[in-house]
């Protein structure tokens, strides 16, 4: 049978009891397992009226937004804001594309798989592959319903079968922050379809070297501005038929996407765009500058700490590239720290949990060996400070000779 | 292969170009195919401040609501409002149940199917049946991904196979407004699971004869208050394991449900409950009274019109029952008119479309013969008036001997 049995054994988001600062009350564990983007709350708290949404009792009551459009449940206001947002960030080509909205990019991922495989060929489910380390939820999301249309096919590097397949390219990659392209070398045969998860291709995380220009790419409100609770994602899709089938999937899965959140996303994106067009506003009011500086500061501090415990942990290095958005060479400051432990530690997740009281997500969940662990860089300030302190405590552990 | 090919041939919501009053500009067709509950807009437009939601830029940013709870993405404020709302309406037992939230009841339907069938038994997909006429989308939603866990099994009246099955009971029924119970007579064998779609079990549509008290039942914001655009549904679930698996499904499908809409639903439900606790407020401010009177008025007018064209159309009759909410015997005023044409008209949907310029949804979509058609009673006032006028025009058609 498909992957549901395995699934229930995996850790879930609601297994532990979190207070608002990510620290569990029972065992003092700091939970940095998930990528909850609360890091940006302080910025939005200062924005006042221009980011405050007011919805009256009779607003947005209909299922429909604009039934003349292919994606009939997409609010025109949000479509406009998305286009403008990408033009300001310079991170995606928006011309001649359909916008399809989803309940987070998670729903869009499934909508794309459906659109690329339905109606079924009859030749059995199409394998879905992604280069390891790949996003830990892809397998579970793909195999959730044991679909006859598609199934998880594992690491794209190891994929060498004939026939149709789908490759998911996450760039910058979750968990390791690297810029990626497709790796299955079957272009030209017409059998492979590629989709691009660009959740982290924003100027605070990585140099914007060009507007992404793929046939199917999607983004999310959660990681661009930090509004994860609104569950808004959007796809930019070249092919009309693919966009139509994605819309059909979302119609049958949830009859569209929350209009309240769509309008909120439009307002927040609009405020960011306004700030870049208002020359009088200082840098402090520009979201991407704020977020970029904040991520740079966190990464600088993390690298300092990891340097002090370099016998135990290491971090990836990222090349400097010319960022079109910032107009200078910049580094990557990924949303996650992809920590690798030295050879003496077999299971880095377990080590962090037991010795540092830090809950991260181990390498096996991402299709690689357990010497890796993913730790979010997007927590609130207090949780991030505790993360650094607890990581540093490894020095004392070493002194106490707990590590051989 | 599963039902995807058939699907794409079916009419979709975005096939025609609607203006805000449901009338297409191209062919003057009035679209009453879907159940968009815009009928209640006028009520909510008068509610002012007490139903106006204000969300600040830094509100509701996290994925999490309360990680100590089973359904960790459910806002405690909404859970409280749902409990209170059912107590005011008297339509469901809320004690000792888990509340699981979904992106509309559409997502919850799929979450229940997953929860009742995963991990798969290995014996092949479990049939899902419902008594005809059944909700037109169940088949497409069930077969969307050609799941190996479950598949559409058709009319429950005709179901006589051995082994596990799931029966969906919609009560009051969509399309015909009847109160229903399970019809597959296999209780006691432990092989059948029953889920109750109670979207229309509210005092404006049907007498509330008792609080519903089933193991798995779900409701939706769309049909209770008319806020379809918010995409909020909720299930009341007795069994912890079922609730946990439903939560897992929604985690993997969309990482939760829009928090903006959750808070909006809590506010609207709260305002309704407040109005019933505030003795000073007149009946006009009480939502269920307003909605009940409005539906009664529409049904009275529709029955008068149908009486005038009774040689062509007929409507179901509903028994009067004592309604615990209204404290008197009341009739049913369903959300849809389930029109039946006389023997001379083979296809009622086609007839309505061609002769009356009314787009309804034909009987075949609900698993019955095409002499039936479902027409929404929840449109805006102008569209409803046009519906009546156009239905009445059948008299002239008869005079012109277009009907033999």
From TrEMBL, chains A, B:
Q: Which SUPFAM superfamilies match?
A: PLP-dependent transferases
Q: Which UniProt keywords apply?
A: Aminotransferase, Pyridoxal phosphate, Transferase
**Cofactor(s) in the UniProt record:** pyridoxal 5'-phosphate
Q: Which residues form the signal peptide?
A: none
A biological process (GO) annotation for this entry? Answer: amino acid metabolic process
Give the record's family classification.
Answer: Belongs to the alliinase family.
- Its quaternary structure? Homodimer.
Name the record gives this protein: Tryptophan aminotransferase 1
Q: Which organism is it from?
A: Morus notabilis
